[in-house]
From TrEMBL:
Family: Belongs to the GTP cyclohydrolase I type 2/NIF3 family.
Signal peptide extent: none
Xref: Gene3D superfamilies: NIF3 (NGG1p interacting factor 3)-like
Residues at which a divalent metal cation binds: 65-66, 104, 224, 227
Upper taxonomic lineage: Bacteria, Bacillati, Bacillota, Bacilli, Lactobacillales
GO CC terms of this entry: cytoplasm
InterPro entries the record matches: DUF34/NIF3, DUF34/NIF3_sf
Subunit structure: Homohexamer.
Protein name: GTP cyclohydrolase 1 type 2 homolog
């Protein structure tokens, strides 16, 4: 049998906790890190439907990107759906671990996966300063293309039904692309300073969109959920380490979409 903590010790060799933004509530969220694990469910978000999926799978552990307890619980009254979910996790003896901004920043992690999915080349970090230094990625398109074509490529690559675009000219030629998964709107000037022709990030704030237009920095907002790309990649890493270390452990990606938005 393999302890949950043994698995995470190996993961944190890959994505050390020191890479996380200070105050980011990464790490163990719920359950017993010392319990034995045979099956792991890998998910972007920990939601009630994901917990039900884990129980159906027989998973003793959930590995998530977004912390399940991003904000501390104010009480443990089970009439609150979020608190009820915590109780369900504990009753099922499931250990929950989250790797957030450390997975975003690490070489070969979230933002490299997002950039590689677009077949960018010469990929390097583009944020040089502050707590988020080293988090985003910038790279070259294999073939330059108009922004309008890149928008369609982004939709196809990340399997999107819709996205938002902030741009003055959809026919502008794009060669160099910056990308940051999640909520990265405040870094558009970093992307511009790094020489990006376009910046891809999620959750762009309305007034920030006006600032992007004024700065003539085209931005594609595919939403936050494109980070689900981590499910298969983390699953592959965990299964690779299981083979290398002779663990009787199997990881599987969640088959559920936890995107709260629908497009009509």
């Amino acid at each position: 049998m393999t302890r949950a903590q043994t698995i995470i010790d190996r993961f944190e060799m890959f994505a050390p906790r020191s890479l996380a933004v200070p105050g980011d509530p990464i790490g163990w969220q719920l359950g017993d890190p010392n319990q034995d694990v045979k099956k792991i469910l890998v998910t972007l978000d920990v939601r009630p439907e994901v917990v039900a999926e884990a129980k159906q799978l027989g998973a003793e552990m959930i590995f998530a990107h977004h912390p399940a307890m991003f904000r501390p619980a104010k009480n443990m009254v089970l009439t609150d759906p979020q608190t009820q979910m915590y109780a369900d996790i504990l009753r099922a003896n499931i250990a929950v671990y989250a790797a957030h901004t450390n997975l975003d920043s690490v070489a070969g992690g979230m933002n490299d996966w997002l950039a590689q999915a677009l077949h960018l080349t010469q990929i390097v970090p583009f944020i040089d300063e502050g707590e988020e230094a080293g988090m985003g990625r910038i790279g070259q398109l294999v073939h330059p293309m108009p922004l309008a074509d890149l928008i369609q490529t982004v939709k196809n690559t990340y399997h999107l039904k819709g996205l938002r675009v902030v741009a003055n000219d959809l026919q502008r030629e794009i060669k160099r692309v910056a990308i940051l998964g999640g909520d990265g709107g405040k870094f558009y000037l970093d992307a511009k300073a790094a020489g990006a022709d376009v910046y891809i990030t999620g959750d762009v704030y309305y007034h920030t969109g006006h600032d992007m237009l004024a700065a003539d920095m085209p931005v594609i907002d595919p939403g936050h959920h494109i980070e689900q790309i981590m499910k298969q990649h983390v699953t592959d890493l965990l299964n690779q380490w299981a083979v290398e270390n002779d663990w009787s452990v199997e990881a599987a990606p969640s088959q559920l979409s936890t995107d709260p938005y629908q497009f009509f």
